[in-house]
Recover the amino acids of this structure.
Protein backbone atom coordinates (compact mmCIF):
# COMPACT_ATOMS: atom_id res chain seq x y z
CA UNK A 1 0.00 0.00 0.00
CA UNK A 2 1.24 3.50 -0.80
CA UNK A 3 1.26 6.45 1.62
CA UNK A 4 -1.88 8.09 0.18
CA UNK A 5 -3.89 4.92 0.62
CA UNK A 6 -2.54 4.50 4.17
CA UNK A 7 -3.36 8.12 5.06
CA UNK A 8 -6.94 7.79 3.78
CA UNK A 9 -7.45 4.86 6.18
CA UNK A 10 -5.82 6.36 9.24
CA UNK A 11 -9.08 7.62 10.78
CA UNK A 12 -10.64 4.18 10.50
CA UNK A 13 -7.43 2.70 11.92
CA UNK A 14 -7.53 5.04 14.94
CA UNK A 15 -11.21 4.20 15.53
CA UNK A 16 -10.49 0.45 15.35
CA UNK A 17 -12.79 0.06 12.35
CA UNK A 18 -10.41 -1.89 10.08
CA UNK A 19 -10.08 -5.63 9.73
CA UNK A 20 -7.20 -7.35 11.51
CA UNK A 21 -5.36 -7.79 8.22
CA UNK A 22 -5.74 -4.11 7.22
CA UNK A 23 -4.68 -2.92 10.68
CA UNK A 24 -1.60 -5.15 10.50
CA UNK A 25 -0.49 -3.64 7.18
CA UNK A 26 -0.95 -0.11 8.47
CA UNK A 27 0.90 -0.85 11.71
CA UNK A 28 3.82 -2.23 9.72
CA UNK A 29 3.85 0.76 7.40
CA UNK A 30 3.79 3.23 10.31
CA UNK A 31 6.95 1.62 11.69
CA UNK A 32 8.90 2.40 8.55
CA UNK A 33 7.25 5.63 7.29
CA UNK A 34 7.91 8.73 9.36
CA UNK A 35 5.50 10.90 7.37
CA UNK A 36 2.53 8.58 7.84
CA UNK A 37 3.45 8.04 11.47
CA UNK A 38 3.38 11.81 12.06
CA UNK A 39 0.00 12.09 10.30
CA UNK A 40 -1.37 9.34 12.53
CA UNK A 41 -0.13 11.20 15.65
CA UNK A 42 -1.77 14.45 14.52
CA UNK A 43 -5.09 12.74 13.77
CA UNK A 44 -5.05 11.04 17.18
CA UNK A 45 -4.39 14.40 18.85
CA UNK A 46 -7.15 16.05 16.80
CA UNK A 47 -9.58 13.43 18.02
CA UNK A 48 -8.31 13.96 21.57
CA UNK A 49 -8.79 17.76 21.28
CA UNK A 50 -12.33 17.38 19.93
CA UNK A 51 -13.18 15.12 22.85
CA UNK A 52 -12.05 17.80 25.30
CA UNK A 53 -15.32 19.63 24.68
CA UNK A 54 -16.98 18.07 27.65
CA UNK A 55 -20.23 16.22 27.88
CA UNK A 56 -22.85 17.97 29.96
CA UNK A 57 -25.48 15.99 31.85
CA UNK A 58 -29.12 16.67 31.07
CA UNK A 59 -30.64 19.23 33.48
CA UNK A 60 -32.15 17.91 36.72
CA UNK A 61 -35.66 18.94 35.74
CA UNK A 62 -35.38 17.08 32.39
CA UNK A 63 -36.82 13.84 33.67
CA UNK A 64 -39.80 15.34 35.55
CA UNK A 65 -40.78 17.77 32.78
CA UNK A 66 -40.60 15.04 30.17
CA UNK A 67 -42.66 12.56 32.18
CA UNK A 68 -45.32 15.21 32.82
CA UNK A 69 -45.56 15.83 29.05
CA UNK A 70 -45.59 12.09 28.36
CA UNK A 71 -48.33 11.60 30.93
CA UNK A 72 -50.56 14.05 29.06
CA UNK A 73 -50.04 12.10 25.85
CA UNK A 74 -50.74 8.74 27.45
CA UNK A 75 -54.01 10.04 28.96
CA UNK A 76 -55.32 11.30 25.64
CA UNK A 77 -58.07 9.11 24.19
CA UNK A 78 -56.93 6.26 21.99
CA UNK A 79 -56.21 7.24 18.43
CA UNK A 80 -55.77 10.96 19.19
CA UNK A 81 -52.17 10.65 20.27
CA UNK A 82 -50.63 10.89 16.85
CA UNK A 83 -53.29 11.54 14.26
CA UNK A 84 -56.85 12.65 14.81
CA UNK A 85 -57.69 10.93 11.52
CA UNK A 86 -56.02 7.69 10.59
CA UNK A 87 -53.72 8.44 7.65
CA UNK A 88 -54.09 6.56 4.38
CA UNK A 89 -51.50 3.78 4.32
CA UNK A 90 -52.29 2.20 0.95
CA UNK A 91 -50.25 2.58 -2.25
CA UNK A 92 -49.68 6.13 -3.48
CA UNK A 93 -51.09 5.46 -6.96
CA UNK A 94 -54.56 5.07 -5.42
CA UNK A 95 -54.35 8.66 -4.15
CA UNK A 96 -53.25 9.88 -7.61
CA UNK A 97 -56.04 8.02 -9.42
CA UNK A 98 -58.63 9.37 -6.95
CA UNK A 99 -57.31 12.91 -7.38
CA UNK A 100 -57.38 12.84 -11.19
CA UNK A 101 -60.78 11.14 -11.15
CA UNK A 102 -62.30 13.91 -9.03
CA UNK A 103 -60.65 16.56 -11.25
CA UNK A 104 -62.07 15.00 -14.46
CA UNK A 105 -65.53 14.70 -12.88
CA UNK A 106 -65.52 18.37 -11.86
CA UNK A 107 -64.43 19.41 -15.36
CA UNK A 108 -67.18 17.33 -16.92
CA UNK A 109 -69.82 18.84 -14.62
CA UNK A 110 -68.58 22.34 -15.45
CA UNK A 111 -68.78 21.74 -19.24
CA UNK A 112 -72.20 20.04 -18.89
CA UNK A 113 -73.62 22.94 -16.90
CA UNK A 114 -72.57 25.39 -19.64
CA UNK A 115 -73.82 23.40 -22.62
CA UNK A 116 -77.21 22.45 -21.19
CA UNK A 117 -78.06 25.71 -19.44
CA UNK A 118 -81.76 26.63 -20.06
CA UNK A 119 -82.45 29.06 -22.90
CA UNK A 120 -82.98 32.53 -21.71
CA UNK A 121 -86.62 33.28 -22.08
CA UNK A 122 -87.53 36.76 -23.13
CA UNK A 123 -89.49 38.29 -20.34
CA UNK A 124 -93.17 38.51 -21.11
CA UNK A 125 -94.05 42.11 -21.74
CA UNK A 126 -97.35 43.25 -20.55
CA UNK A 127 -99.20 45.13 -23.31
CA UNK A 128 -99.38 48.81 -22.80
CA UNK A 129 -102.64 49.88 -21.16
CA UNK A 130 -103.49 51.83 -24.31
CA UNK A 131 -103.72 48.54 -26.29
CA UNK A 132 -105.91 47.01 -23.60
CA UNK A 133 -108.20 50.00 -23.86
CA UNK A 134 -108.19 49.68 -27.62
CA UNK A 135 -109.16 46.00 -27.37
CA UNK A 136 -111.95 46.82 -24.90
CA UNK A 137 -113.26 49.63 -27.10
CA UNK A 138 -113.25 47.31 -30.13
CA UNK A 139 -115.21 44.66 -28.19
CA UNK A 140 -117.69 47.23 -26.81
CA UNK A 141 -118.30 48.86 -30.18
CA UNK A 142 -118.10 45.55 -32.04
CA UNK A 143 -115.31 46.81 -34.29
CA UNK A 144 -113.20 44.26 -36.20
CA UNK A 145 -110.57 46.59 -37.69
CA UNK A 146 -108.55 48.64 -35.16
CA UNK A 147 -108.15 51.38 -37.77
CA UNK A 148 -111.82 52.15 -37.37
CA UNK A 149 -111.22 53.19 -33.78
CA UNK A 150 -111.32 56.97 -33.32
CA UNK A 151 -108.17 56.93 -31.15
CA UNK A 152 -106.22 55.26 -33.93
CA UNK A 153 -107.18 57.93 -36.42
CA UNK A 154 -106.18 60.60 -33.92
CA UNK A 155 -102.79 58.95 -33.41
CA UNK A 156 -102.35 58.54 -37.17
CA UNK A 157 -103.14 62.20 -37.65
CA UNK A 158 -100.59 63.22 -35.07
CA UNK A 159 -98.00 60.98 -36.69
CA UNK A 160 -98.71 62.41 -40.13
CA UNK A 161 -98.44 65.96 -38.86
CA UNK A 162 -95.04 65.03 -37.35
CA UNK A 163 -96.01 66.06 -33.86
CA UNK A 164 -95.16 62.68 -32.40
CA UNK A 165 -92.71 60.13 -33.79
CA UNK B 1 -31.11 -9.14 34.52
CA UNK B 2 -31.03 -6.16 32.19
CA UNK B 3 -34.13 -5.65 30.09
CA UNK B 4 -33.27 -4.95 26.46
CA UNK B 5 -34.31 -1.68 24.80
CA UNK B 6 -36.39 -3.64 22.32
CA UNK B 7 -38.36 -5.30 25.11
CA UNK B 8 -38.88 -1.95 26.83
CA UNK B 9 -40.23 -0.54 23.56
CA UNK B 10 -42.65 -3.44 23.31
CA UNK B 11 -43.92 -2.64 26.80
CA UNK B 12 -44.07 1.06 25.90
CA UNK B 13 -46.31 0.20 22.98
CA UNK B 14 -48.69 -1.50 25.40
CA UNK B 15 -48.84 1.71 27.47
CA UNK B 16 -46.36 0.78 30.19
CA UNK B 17 -45.09 4.18 31.39
CA UNK B 18 -42.53 2.57 33.71
CA UNK B 19 -40.83 1.09 30.62
CA UNK B 20 -40.79 4.52 28.98
CA UNK B 21 -39.27 6.03 32.12
CA UNK B 22 -36.51 3.43 32.03
CA UNK B 23 -35.73 4.31 28.41
CA UNK B 24 -35.55 7.99 29.33
CA UNK B 25 -33.19 7.25 32.21
CA UNK B 26 -30.96 5.16 29.94
CA UNK B 27 -30.63 7.66 27.13
CA UNK B 28 -31.46 11.15 28.43
CA UNK B 29 -27.83 12.25 28.90
CA UNK B 30 -26.67 10.81 25.57
CA UNK B 31 -29.54 12.35 23.62
CA UNK B 32 -29.22 15.70 25.37
CA UNK B 33 -25.46 15.80 24.76
CA UNK B 34 -25.83 14.98 21.11
CA UNK B 35 -28.41 17.76 20.66
CA UNK B 36 -26.23 20.16 22.65
CA UNK B 37 -23.02 19.45 20.69
CA UNK B 38 -24.93 19.76 17.46
CA UNK B 39 -27.00 22.88 18.24
CA UNK B 40 -24.75 24.60 20.82
CA UNK B 41 -27.84 25.88 22.59
CA UNK B 42 -28.51 24.48 26.07
CA UNK B 43 -32.23 25.29 26.21
CA UNK B 44 -33.07 24.25 22.66
CA UNK B 45 -31.07 21.05 23.19
CA UNK B 46 -33.31 20.33 26.18
CA UNK B 47 -36.51 20.98 24.19
CA UNK B 48 -35.34 18.95 21.21
CA UNK B 49 -34.24 15.96 23.28
CA UNK B 50 -37.56 15.98 25.17
CA UNK B 51 -39.42 16.15 21.88
CA UNK B 52 -37.37 13.16 20.66
CA UNK B 53 -38.47 11.06 23.64
CA UNK B 54 -42.09 12.09 23.16
CA UNK B 55 -41.84 10.95 19.55
CA UNK B 56 -40.46 7.63 20.76
CA UNK B 57 -43.56 7.26 22.94
CA UNK B 58 -45.98 8.36 20.22
CA UNK B 59 -44.40 6.13 17.58
CA UNK B 60 -43.76 3.10 19.79
CA UNK B 61 -46.21 1.18 17.60
CA UNK B 62 -44.18 1.93 14.49
CA UNK B 63 -40.92 0.70 16.02
CA UNK B 64 -39.92 -2.67 14.63
CA UNK B 65 -37.89 -4.83 16.98
CA UNK B 66 -35.51 -5.78 14.16
CA UNK B 67 -34.26 -2.14 14.21
CA UNK B 68 -31.53 -1.29 16.63
CA UNK B 69 -33.22 1.00 19.17
CA UNK B 70 -30.22 3.26 19.81
CA UNK B 71 -29.78 4.14 16.13
CA UNK B 72 -33.56 4.60 15.73
CA UNK B 73 -33.53 7.07 18.62
CA UNK B 74 -30.50 8.94 17.25
CA UNK B 75 -32.18 9.13 13.85
CA UNK B 76 -35.17 10.87 15.47
CA UNK B 77 -32.92 13.35 17.32
CA UNK B 78 -30.81 13.95 14.21
CA UNK B 79 -33.88 14.80 12.14
CA UNK B 80 -35.20 17.14 14.83
CA UNK B 81 -31.80 18.87 15.08
CA UNK B 82 -31.58 19.25 11.29
CA UNK B 83 -35.02 20.86 11.25
CA UNK B 84 -34.02 23.15 14.09
CA UNK B 85 -30.88 24.26 12.22
CA UNK B 86 -32.91 24.90 9.07
CA UNK B 87 -35.38 27.03 11.06
CA UNK B 88 -32.51 28.84 12.69
CA UNK B 89 -30.91 29.59 9.32
CA UNK B 90 -34.24 30.99 8.16
CA UNK B 91 -34.77 33.16 11.24
CA UNK B 92 -31.13 33.59 12.34
CA UNK B 93 -32.09 33.21 16.01
CA UNK B 94 -28.76 32.30 17.64
CA UNK B 95 -25.82 34.49 16.77
CA UNK B 96 -22.19 33.43 17.01
CA UNK B 97 -21.77 35.55 20.14
CA UNK B 98 -24.72 33.78 21.78
CA UNK B 99 -23.23 30.38 21.07
CA UNK B 100 -19.86 31.47 22.48
CA UNK B 101 -21.64 32.64 25.62
CA UNK B 102 -23.34 29.24 25.82
CA UNK B 103 -19.96 27.53 25.73
CA UNK B 104 -18.51 29.84 28.34
CA UNK B 105 -21.48 29.19 30.61
CA UNK B 106 -21.07 25.43 30.58
CA UNK B 107 -17.38 24.79 30.04
CA UNK B 108 -16.44 26.37 33.35
CA UNK B 109 -15.44 24.00 36.11
CA UNK B 110 -14.93 25.05 39.72
CA UNK B 111 -12.28 22.34 40.16
CA UNK B 112 -9.88 23.84 37.58
CA UNK B 113 -7.62 26.85 38.05
CA UNK B 114 -8.58 30.09 36.23
CA UNK B 115 -5.78 29.47 33.68
CA UNK B 116 -6.98 25.95 33.03
CA UNK B 117 -10.56 27.18 32.68
CA UNK B 118 -9.47 29.87 30.24
CA UNK B 119 -7.45 27.41 28.18
CA UNK B 120 -10.34 24.95 28.15
CA UNK B 121 -12.80 27.64 27.07
CA UNK B 122 -10.55 28.78 24.24
CA UNK B 123 -10.01 25.26 23.01
CA UNK B 124 -13.74 24.50 23.18
CA UNK B 125 -14.44 27.62 21.16
CA UNK B 126 -11.92 26.55 18.49
CA UNK B 127 -13.27 23.01 18.34
CA UNK B 128 -16.86 24.26 18.19
CA UNK B 129 -16.04 26.65 15.34
CA UNK B 130 -14.21 23.87 13.49
CA UNK B 131 -17.14 21.44 13.86
CA UNK B 132 -19.63 24.14 12.85
CA UNK B 133 -17.72 24.77 9.63
CA UNK B 134 -18.21 21.16 8.49
CA UNK B 135 -20.97 20.05 6.12
CA UNK B 136 -24.06 18.82 8.02
CA UNK B 137 -23.53 15.07 7.50
CA UNK B 138 -19.83 15.27 8.49
CA UNK B 139 -20.87 17.25 11.57
CA UNK B 140 -23.36 14.56 12.62
CA UNK B 141 -20.87 11.76 11.91
CA UNK B 142 -18.08 13.33 13.96
CA UNK B 143 -20.36 14.23 16.90
CA UNK B 144 -21.77 10.69 16.97
CA UNK B 145 -18.25 9.24 16.84
CA UNK B 146 -16.39 11.51 19.25
CA UNK B 147 -19.05 12.32 21.85
CA UNK B 148 -21.57 9.51 21.58
CA UNK B 149 -18.99 6.78 20.90
CA UNK B 150 -21.05 5.14 18.15
CA UNK B 151 -19.20 2.78 15.81
CA UNK B 152 -19.21 3.22 12.03
CA UNK B 153 -21.96 0.68 11.50
CA UNK B 154 -24.27 2.48 13.93
CA UNK B 155 -23.47 5.87 12.37
CA UNK B 156 -24.28 4.41 8.93
CA UNK B 157 -27.69 3.34 10.27
CA UNK B 158 -28.37 6.79 11.72
CA UNK B 159 -27.33 8.58 8.53
CA UNK B 160 -28.89 5.92 6.31
CA UNK B 161 -25.72 5.54 4.22
CA UNK B 162 -23.01 2.93 3.59
CA UNK B 163 -20.10 2.13 5.92
CA UNK B 164 -17.59 3.39 3.34
CA UNK B 165 -19.49 6.70 3.20
CA UNK B 166 -19.20 6.99 6.99
CA UNK B 167 -15.44 6.21 6.81
CA UNK B 168 -14.98 8.97 4.28
CA UNK B 169 -17.14 11.49 6.19
CA UNK B 170 -15.24 10.96 9.45
CA UNK B 171 -11.87 11.07 7.74
CA UNK B 172 -12.72 14.31 5.89
CA UNK B 173 -14.16 15.84 9.06
CA UNK B 174 -10.98 15.08 11.04
CA UNK B 175 -8.78 16.42 8.24
CA UNK B 176 -10.81 19.63 8.16
CA UNK B 177 -10.72 20.08 11.94
CA UNK B 178 -6.98 19.36 11.93
CA UNK B 179 -6.36 22.05 9.27
CA UNK B 180 -8.42 24.62 11.20
CA UNK B 181 -6.65 23.89 14.51
CA UNK B 182 -3.23 24.03 12.82
CA UNK B 183 -4.16 27.37 11.23
CA UNK B 184 -5.12 28.69 14.67
CA UNK B 185 -1.67 27.63 15.87
CA UNK B 186 -2.84 24.98 18.28
CA UNK B 187 0.41 23.39 19.36
CA UNK B 188 0.04 19.68 18.86
CA UNK B 189 3.47 19.03 20.39
CA UNK B 190 2.22 20.27 23.80
CA UNK B 191 -0.47 17.66 24.05
Amino acid sequence: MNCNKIKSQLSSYIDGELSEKESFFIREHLLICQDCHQEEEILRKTSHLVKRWENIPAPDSFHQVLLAKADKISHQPQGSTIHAVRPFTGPRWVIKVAFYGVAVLLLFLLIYSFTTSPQRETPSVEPHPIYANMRNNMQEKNIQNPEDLPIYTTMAKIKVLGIWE
Amino acid sequence: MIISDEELMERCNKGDMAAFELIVLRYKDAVFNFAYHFLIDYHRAQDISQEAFLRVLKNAGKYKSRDYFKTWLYRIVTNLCKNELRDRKRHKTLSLEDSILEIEKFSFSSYDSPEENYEKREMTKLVKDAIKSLPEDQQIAIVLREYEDLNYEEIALVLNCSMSAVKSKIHRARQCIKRILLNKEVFYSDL
